[in-house]
Amino acid sequence: MAPFEASLAFAQSLDQVDILFPFRERFLFPQHDGRDVNYFCGNSLGLQPKAVSFLMQNELEDWAKYGVEGHFNARYPWFSYHHFFNERLAAIVGADKDEVVAMNTLTVNLHLLMQSFYRPEGGRYKILMEAGAFPSDQYAMETQVRMHGFDPYDAIIEIAPREGQHTIDEQDIYDAITAAGDTLAVVMIGGVNYYTGQFFDLEKITAAAHEVGAYAGFDLAHAVGNIPLKLHDWNVDFACWCSYKYLNSGPGAVGGVYVHEKYGNNPSFFRLAGWWGNDEKTRFKMQKGFVPQKGAASWQMSNAPVFNMVALNASLDIYEKAGMPALREKSESLTGYLEFLLKKLDNLSFEIITPTNPKQRGCQVSMLFKENGREVFDRLTENGVIADWREPTVIRVAPVPLYNTYEDVYKLYEVMAGF
Fold first, then answer.
1. How far apart are CA 83 and CA 98, in angstroms?
2. Domains identified in the chain and CATH numbers
3. pLDDT over 90 for what percent of the chain?
4. pLDDT at 283
5. How big is the chain by its Cα radius of gyration, in Å?
6. Could you give the maximum distance between any two Cα atoms of the chain, in Å?
């Protein structure tokens, strides 16, 4: 690509040759002064796909038409509803279709997975995570270690950025894993840090964890649908995610789980039992004794929340057509253009705390303001530019390749330049 230029005409010229530009028409945008907002909050809540209302109406009609028989006669039979997502989710996270399942919500799934993978024995009881992880991850790890009788201040190893830095030096993660050695039970890190947008090398972290006999698991809330993943090939043990951010499935949408086949296909590997995780062939025999079905689906507790999963169905159809390679290529270009424009602003005092290397970030750029941060954020909002404010003084901007444009990015720059 030719060097970037700070002009509306240049931004529009990039949009004219963007093969993903038509996908923007598949989404509904909030309105500001009679026009679509410039929406940069997909890392918090993605936009609604237009197909959701149609698919939801189908389910309502089938419920009305069939009642309980909809479990087998609906257009998407409810009995096997979760299976409709497996291949498309597997393509997004780089897994076999039996290694993934759409179920529950993020922190519920994290607790369920930790019940399987965090089973302290002898001196192996510690969990390693990044300092400043999303609060729900911190809460989950604290209660997991307490449930086993340990003190979080002893049992949880937190890796923080070095003094004067905002992102974590990954060598510090590897060194901490080595130092913990046979006391380490689980590495549980957010694949992309929600605050800085830093993407961690999940393959190397997994290998380092396995080297000392620990499991490697990841919260992929800010990575799924954002960055191409190869969880199976990287030998990741487990992962979970939400789907209301980049997967555009609505507030409180169903989450997802990945479990490597060596555990999912091992009936003796411990998981909490639930009716919907039981072998489908014997589920309705209503017999005593849990027989796990094959793969990650055996971690299910209850039947699929069909209405809650309709938006995910719509969104995954879009992802299947767009493809993660093309989305990643545009993502790197969009964030590159945003970074280029932000660095031209000499009227504001802020620092970009997201890695400059596009391979170490997703479609997010975080700005740490030294002054006037909240005022800048309010000015953006007043001009129909929707970003995300995080305490103490950070504005997060997520140019999502499915529906954001280069002109969107230029508009944000234009508002900030006029502050």
1. 9
2. 8-36+323-417 (3.90.1150.10), 57-319 (3.40.640.10)
3. 98
4. 86
5. 22
6. 70
Supply the pTM of this predicted model.
0.96
- What's the CA dihedral at 207, 360, 217, 248 to 10 degrees? -150
Would you call 121 helix, strand, or coil by DSSP? Answer: strand
For 26, what's the count of Cα atoms within 13 Å in the CB-facing half-sphere?
Answer: 21
Q: How far is CA 255 from the centre of its chain?
A: 9
- What's the average model confidence in pLDDT over 370-388? 97
Cα 259–chain centre separation: 16
Look up residue 79 and give its amino acid: F
Going by the DSSP 8-state scheme, the letter that residue 316 receives in this structure is: H
The type of residue at 55 is L
Amino acid 284: pLDDT: 85
Whether pLDDT at 2 is above 70: no
Helix (H, G, I), strand (E, B) or coil at 393: coil
Q: 10 Å Cβ neighbour count for 37?
A: 19
Angle of CA points 179, 184, 188, to nearest 5°: 110
Residues 159 and 131 sit within 8 Å (Cβ to Cβ): yes
Question: How many C-alpha atoms does 406 have within 13 Å on its Cβ side?
Answer: 25
Task: List, for residues 55-97, the tens digit of each pLDDT value.
Answer: 999 999 999 999 999 999 999 999 999 999 999 999 999 999 9
> Cα torsion at 162, 168, 170, 171 (round to 10°)?
0
pLDDT at 160 over 90: yes
Please tell me the chain's helix, strand, coil percentages from 3-state DSSP, rounded to the nearest 5: 45, 15, 40
Say if CB 109 and CB 240 are below 8 A apart: yes
In sequence order, what DSSP letters do the residues of 249-292 get, joined into one string? --TT---EEEE-HHHHT-TTS-----GGGB-TTTGGGT-SS--B
> Is residue 362 within 8 Å of residue 227, measured between CB atoms?
yes
pLDDT tens figures, 277-296 = 999 998 888 889 999 999 99
